From TrEMBL:
Annotated ranges, domain RPAP1/MINIYO-like TPR repeats: 1102-1322
Family the entry assigns: Belongs to the RPAP1 family.
Compositionally biased spans, kind Basic and acidic residues: 85-96, 511-530
Keyword set, alphabetical order: Nucleus, Transcription
Segments of skewed composition (Acidic residues): 500-510
Gene giving rise to this polypeptide: RPAP1
InterPro entries noted in UniProt: RPAP1/Rba50 (IPR039913), RPAP1_C (IPR013929), RPAP1_N (IPR013930), TPR_RPAP1/MINIYO-like (IPR057989)
Subcellular location: Nucleus
Name of the protein in question: RNA polymerase II associated protein 1
Length: 1393
């Protein structure tokens, strides 16, 4: 036995093994079957076959070197077995022989024979060059040809036509003398030819498609005629049906383009022959047969009409007449001169159909009917060429032009369009929003791509368009003009308040942790996705800040581009703390801004515009630093310490504006911004060391303020600078008066908060004698409204400084209190009390209602181009004078005046009563009445949030002054009730950032006994008397509502503690708000307020303790109620009862259905709470208030309720709890029965009778204690068949009986009786069958009492024990109906089931 090869053996060994195997003659393990060669034979036929046909490896003829790597020869297809290829047959001939398709006839190519073609040699001439053929030589006197054909093609066609005028003799003869019975195809148009049947034309003139052209001259005509005769013979031998069938088969097989070519060729030949016949035989029959022209498209038919014009008339109205002497104008090409024609006449719009908006180069919207001259450059577009202006689509297309000027022009026009759209110039003339359309089209990223352009003009235009998109000019003007108001430096971030859904449940996280957690997720989101929700975030994701830094640092753009870039950076910094931090941390951005645009030395500038702003001080650069510092105290500290900002502040404040070697307006603005930046830093207690260095400068500037105020026409910029100076002094005075707070161990800023102030009281104590004359000077101008309005924020800034001055003075521990008490008395007697008696001040109070955004919600309407993803205040169009932001607004001055009065009343309680006389102003009283009235609050927009915040400051200060006065002297009942109603309304409206105000209201005004005059004026007794009148003499008052109200007034301190616990606000926000309002500068974290998504407290805040009890009980795993549940529930119910009885307008925003749901939560807390006697009495009193005739119609359980996903789900849970723990409690049962009234959803009744039938046995509420009338349950009749069947089943089975559920027993009997005796012919068959079945079963009932009730029911009557009246005997109609039904049953002998 042969062994197998082993590893390590060579090829010689393998060959030796093969020889041994062959010599042994053993049978192989595998049978090898060899197929035929692909080439059809053996590759080497001379070689003898091997023995046994075995596959043997031979190495004799193998070359020593491997073959070269060359491409293998192409493989040929192997023939199938039994069909070998012939050796000498051409494959092409075999393919043509088997090709049965019609295209085989058309694809055979025969080379053209040129042997008989005459060769024309050039004619010799005596000139250097042969004469050139001139086109006008053969075209004179001929009209211009038509159609879109080149001049060369037209000349060739004309020469061919002239050569074809002499046809062969045979053709002319056959044309002039056609045989009898032959049809003249040349005279028929294509349409007429299509109408002729093919079997009516058996004789043909000659071939048309096959002419023999290209063959030898002696064979051409003979071959063509032979083919023609074969075709004619074949056609004559076919039947008409076969001809049509073959025609359809050919058309289906041929290429459609080939068919079109053949038809066009035939049509051309026919037209040429028709023209020849018309010339030779003008009176022939063919002219009469041709009745219509071929149908052609509009583009081809118009030139043919132009060809038929008279030779003298021009084909087109060209602006100039072409002359033959002009170069290349000897032949007029009309289609190429079409663009030189005048524009078509402007189409007048006859309908209200929408048209595409077009804009001028200045961004103005052009009316569709406006007709403008063409030299304005507004007609360079293809669509609607007659209309002037460019559409947004065309402008977008132009921004991608290769010409830089066109790109810059398009961006400039788009910037103008955006600016006008934001200003509201387009109004309702456009459908939709321009900004939304642009952003959806990708305009934001188009601008970002344009910023990367290489051309400076395009970059400048892109920056201008970006500024127009992001920055609303009115917003910055508004925020700058109100900087010196009461807390005017505090602003809301201009970021969208509608966050993603995944962020809605994350409000409790600290902002720092939330930002860290979200940053990687936002980094993974594409910029386009971010931009849909927030435009600023989307831009920052495209590396906008490094690009802007590069433009400022490297490219050095022009002044306008620099101002635009700085404006964009300011808008980005106003977005949020995160965006401001990114601006600060962008590499070399702030360094470039400070070094290039806030230098300490520069060349003097003249009045003329400068060519570059680099190395020149720029006010927007200072403003950018101020906005960044407003975002947080850490940013302000980094700016002051890390960027050498102190030297810049000293440089621009120490020198007067007129000495800064800058244009006057720029110098005033730069100095103002420097003061504002210092004021922002001083708001954190920073920058106090500059006060000692700049003290002489500040005193000199403060001494110049009265002179500026006394000028006949004060400059607005100078007044803004004076107000900013006073604001700086106000913050520095607060810093000097703030005591060093005790460090907190749990505070992250304990070390920063404990830093003592660098300013002492002695350094600022001398400022008051300088500021008071300024205030006196301004108050002299109060009687003249025009001059008073021109003063701007200066009077407000003076009052706020005096407020801070006296507040800081009273906090100095080492000073004598008598000093500031005497000074406050002097100020009151000399200045403030005389001011209260001025009629001009009364006019300011009277104008509060006109300027209030709360009383005029339309003044806070969103801007026409407001977008959720791009927040702006919407102040582009300005504000009217009589508005909160207008020039004649009384809010800033009156708010500052009330703030000063509160401070003086807090310091000197003897002055509080005198100063509180300002609250008796009729204008203020009327304003409070308007605010308390049930009016819809304005929709929360960025501007409304800003405006309402300033209005709420005035309301809170007025209430605080009233509360201080109420502790010292009695307040009239009318005023006390008004103040209390105003406090309740303000508490539910306060926005984020006003946590301190909400806390103060809960501590003082809301639960103040002096503001509840009803307790001492017979309010409880009046409540008892009202309940007795409404319930009647038979009503069970139990513990009257008056007693409950009196007890609630006694428990008012406990009620306040309960609400302070359960209405607690976020601790961090509350501490920040307290630091801002109390002047604790070391604890102020930022001047950027939280995002105003919604008010601080919900509208149903009086029910918050009850709701929290319900949620805690639901979330408790042990099921045990929280501690002091009874006290919390009792205090909340007491307060709700007080509001329901004496302040119903405070709960008007809470629907009655929502109040009912909150009361039901009391019973769901646990199984014992509702059994407590105080809870029982309070809930019964509140339920009686809900069931009053004036409240009950407003009880709607089908509408969505705030804070509740589904009332049916709550009611199902309520039924389960009632069935488990009620034990027949009547109050619990009354709440179960109240939603079962007929007008409410049938789902509630089906839940009781279908799923909780066992609860019927516990519903033992007597009819006399039903809080609503029984008719509200029985009328109108029930129409739900399923519920009626459940009613009947509960009655028949005994689950519902009158002695344990009298109310629902009467209701079920009433509805079943109405149903079984209903004879409505429109009822469905199913309903009729159910009615008959139910009546038959009623007649056969064994319970005689139930049978009597169901058949003889008459009317509901809660005075009777059963709850309804009965017929002594059935009415005749019912008796007859019953007899008919019963007789039918007796006849059938069986009852229907």
């Amino acid at each position: 036995m042969l062994s197998r090869p082993k590893p390590g053996e060579s090829e010689v060994d393998l060959l030796r093994f093969q020889s041994q195997f062959l010599a042994a003659g053993a049978a192989p393990a595998v049978q090898l079957v060899k197929k035929g060669s692909r080439s059809g034979g053996d590759a080497n036929p001379d070689r003898p076959p091997l023995q046994d046909h075995r596959d043997v490896v031979m190495l004799d003829n193998l070359p020593d070197l491997p073959p070269a790597l060359v491409p293998a020869p192409p493989k040929r297809a192997r023939p199938s077995p039994g069909h070998p290829l012939p050796e000498h047959e051409d494959p092409e001939e075999r393919l043509n022989r088997h090709d049965k398709h019609i295209t085989a006839v058309l694809t055979k190519i025969i080379e053209r024979d040129t042997s008989s073609v005459a060769v024309n040699l050039p004619v010799p001439c005596g000139v250097a060059f042969p004469p050139v053929f001139h086109r006008s030589q053969g075209r004179q006197g001929k009209p211009a040809t038509s159609g879109k054909r080149s001049i060369f093609a037209q000349e060739i066609a004309a020469r061919r036509a002239s050569e074809a005028k002499v046809p062969p003799v045979g053709e002319v003869a056959s044309t002039l003398h056609p045989p009898e019975g032959a049809a003249t195809c040349e005279a028929l148009t294509p349409r007429e030819q299509g109408s002729q049947l093919p079997w009516n034309s058996y004789s043909f003139q000659g071939p048309h498609l096959v002419t023999g052209k290209g063959l030898k001259s002696q064979e051409a005509e003979q071959e063509a005629q032979t083919i023609h005769e074969e075709n004619v013979v074949r056609l004559q031998a076919m039947a008409p049906e076969e001809i049509l069938q073959e025609q359809q088969r050919l058309l289906a097989q041929l290429d459609p383009s080939l068919v079109a070519f053949l038809r066009s060729h035939s049509r051309t030949c026919e037209q040429a022959e028709e023209k020849a016949m018309g010339e030779q035989r003008p009176g022939g029959r063919s002219a009469e047969v041709t009745g219509e022209e071929p149908i052609m498209p509009t583009s081809a038919s118009e030139p043919r009409q132009e060809d038929k014009l008279e030779p003298g008339a021009p084909a087109l109205a060209l602006p100039v007449t072409p002359q033959k002497e002009w170069l290349h104008m000897d032949t007029v090409e009309l289609e190429k001169l079409h663009w030189t024609r005048d524009l078509p006449p402007l189409r007048r719009q006859q309908t209200q159909e929408r048209m595409q908006a077009r804009f001028s180069l200045q961004g103005e919207l052009l009316a569709p009917s406006v007709d403008l001259p063409t030299h304005l450059g507004l007609h360079h577009h293809g669509e609607e060429a007659e209309r002037a202006g460019y559409s947004l689509q065309e402008l977008f297309h132009l921004t991608r032009s290769q010409v830089s000027q066109q790109r810059a022009l398009a961006l400039h026009v788009l910037a103008q369009v955006i600016g006008r759209a934001q200003a509201g110039e387009f109004g309702d003339r456009l459908v939709g929003s321009v900004l939304r359309l642009l952003l959806d089209a990708g305009f934001l990223f188009l601008l970002r791509f344009s910023l990367d352009d290489r051309v400076d003009g395009v970059i400048a235009a892109a920056v201008r368009a970006l500024r127009a998109l992001l920055v609303a000019p009115g917003d910055e003007e508004l925020l700058d003009s109100t900087f010196s108001w009461y807390h005017g430096a505090l602003v809301f971030p201009l970021m969208p308040s509608q966050e993603d859904k995944e962020d809605e449940d994350e409000d409790e996280e600290p902002p720092a942790e939330k930002a860290k957690r979200k940053s990687p997720e936002e980094g993974n989101r594409p910029p386009s996705d971010l931009a849909r929700h927030d435009v600023i975030k989307g831009l920052l994701a495209t590396n906008l800040l490094p690009r802007l830094r590069y433009l400022l640092e490297v490219t050095c753009p022009g002044p306008s581009a620099v101002l635009d870039i700085l404006a964009v950076l300011i808008r980005v910094a106003r977005h949020s703390l995160e965006s401001a931090t990114r601006v600060l941390e962008c590499p070399r951005l702030i360094e470039t801004v400070i070094q290039e645009f806030l230098p300490t030395s520069w060349s003097p500038m003249g009045v003329r515009p400068t060519l570059s702003l680099h190395r020149v001080p720029c006010a927007p650069a200072m403003k950018l630093l101020r906005v960044l510092a407003s975002a947080g105290r850490n940013i302000a500290a980094r700016l002051l310490s890390g960027f050498d900002l102190r030297s810049r502040l000293c440089r621009f404040i120490a020198e007067a504006p007129q000495d800064l070697a800058l244009p006057p307006e720029e110098a005033e603005t730069l100095s103002t911004e420097a003061f504002r930046l210092w004021a922002v830093a001083a708001s954190y207690g920073q920058g106090g060391d500059l006060y000692r260095e700049l003290y002489p400068v500040l005193i000199r500037a403060l001494q110049a303020v009265p002179k500026e105020l006394s000028s006949p026409s004060p400059q607005p910029l100078a007044l803004q600078r004076a107000a900013s100076l006073l604001t700086v002094l106000t913050q520095l005075t607060l810093a000097a008066g703030s005591t060093t707070p005790e460090p907190r161990s749990d505070s992250a800023e304990a070390s920063v908060s404990s830093t003592p102030s660098s300013i002492t009281w002695t350094q600022v104590s001398g400022l008051q004698p300088l500021v008071e004359p300024c205030l006196r000077q301004t108050l002299k101008l109060l009687p003249t409204p025009e001059t008073w309005s021109a003063l701007g924020p200066v009077p407000t800034a003076c009052l706020l400084f005096l407020d801070a001055y006296y507040q800081a003075w009273s906090q100095q521990p080492g000073l004598c209190p008598g000093d500031w008490l005497q000074d406050t008395e002097r100020l009151s007697e000399e200045l403030l009390l005389p001011l209260l008696s001025q009629p001009a001040l009364g006019r300011l109070w009277d104008s509060l209602g006109c300027c209030s955004p709360l009383c005029n919600p339309q003044s806070c309407a969103p801007a026409p181009e407001a977008l959720p993803s791009l927040v702006s205040l919407g102040c582009a169009g300005g504000h009217p004078p009589l508005s909160l932001a207008g020039s004649a607004s009384p809010f800033p001055f009156l708010t500052a005046l009330l703030s000063l009065f509160n401070t003086l009343g807090w310091i000197h309680k003897g002055l509080c009563g005198q100063l509180a006389a300002v609250l008796a102003a009729p204008g203020l009283q009327n304003y409070f009445l308007q605010c308390v009235a049930p009016v819809a609050a304005p929709h929360l927009t960025p501007f409304s949030a800003w405006a309402l915040r300033h209005e709420y400051h005035l309301q809170h200060l007025a209430l605080a002054l009233a509360q201080r006065a109420a502790t010292l002297q009695p307040v009239s009942a009318t005023s006390a009730a008004l103040y209390h109603g105003m406090a309740l309304a303000l508490l539910s409206r306060l926005l984020p950032g006003s946590e301190h105000l909400a806390h103060e209201l809960l501590l003082s005004c809301v639960f103040r006994l002096e503001f509840l005059p009803e307790r001492a004026s017979g309010g409880p007794e009046a409540a008892d008397f009202s309940d007795r009148l409404s319930l009647g003499s038979g009503g069970d008052l139990g513990c009257g509502r008056g007693t409950l109200l009196a007890q609630a007034c006694q428990d008012l301190p406990s009620i306040r503690s309960c609400y302070l616990t359960h209405c607690s606000l976020a601790r961090a926000s509350l501490l920040a708000s307290q630091a801002l309002h109390r002047g604790e500068l070391q604890r102020v974290p930022a001047l950027l307020l939280p995002v105003a998504k919604e008010p601080l407290l919900p509208t149903d805040w009086p029910f918050l303790p009850l709701i929290q009890l319900y949620h805690r009980a639901s979330d408790s795993p042990s099921g045990l109620p929280p501690a002091d549940t009874v006290g919390t529930a009792m205090h909340a119910l007491q307060w709700v009862l007080v509001l329901e009885s004496w302040r119903p307008q405070a709960l008007r925003a809470v629907p009655p259905a929502a109040r009912l749901a909150r009361l039901m939560c009391v019973f769901l807390v646990d199984s014992e709470l509702f059994r407590e006697t105080p809870i029982q009495r309070l809930v019964a009193a509140l339920l009686a208030r809900l069931c009053q005739p004036e409240v009950l119609p407003n009880l709607n359980l089908d509408c969505p309720l705030p804070g509740l996903t589904s009332f049916p789900d709550l009611y199902a849970n309520f039924l389960e709890h009632f069935e488990a723990v009620s034990f027949g409690d009547h109050l619990f049962g009354a709440l179960v029965l109240l939603p079962l009234q007929r007008r409410f959803s049938v789902t509630l009744r089906l839940a009781l009778f279908g799923e909780h039938v066992g609860a019927l046995r516990a519903l033992g509420l007597p009819l006399t204690q039903l809080p609503v009338s029984l008719e509200s349950y029985t009328a109108p009749p029930e129409d739900n068949l399923a519920l009626l069947q459940l009613y009947f089943r509960a009655l028949v089975t005994g689950a519902l009986q009158s002695h344990w559920c009298p109310v629902l027993y009467a209701v079920a009997v009433a509805h079943v009786n109405s149903f079984i005796f209903c004879q409505d012919p429109k009822s469905l068959d199913e309903v009729k069958a159910a009615r008959r079945s139910m009546l038959q079963k009623t007649w056969l009932l064994a319970d005689e009492g139930l049978r009597q009730h169901l058949l003889h029911y008459k009317l509901p009557n809660s005075a009777l024990p059963e709850g309804f009246e009965l017929y002594p005997q059935l009415p005749p109609l019912r008796q007859q109906y019953l007899q008919r039904l019963i007789s039918g049953v007796l006849q059938n002998g069986v009852s229907e089931t």
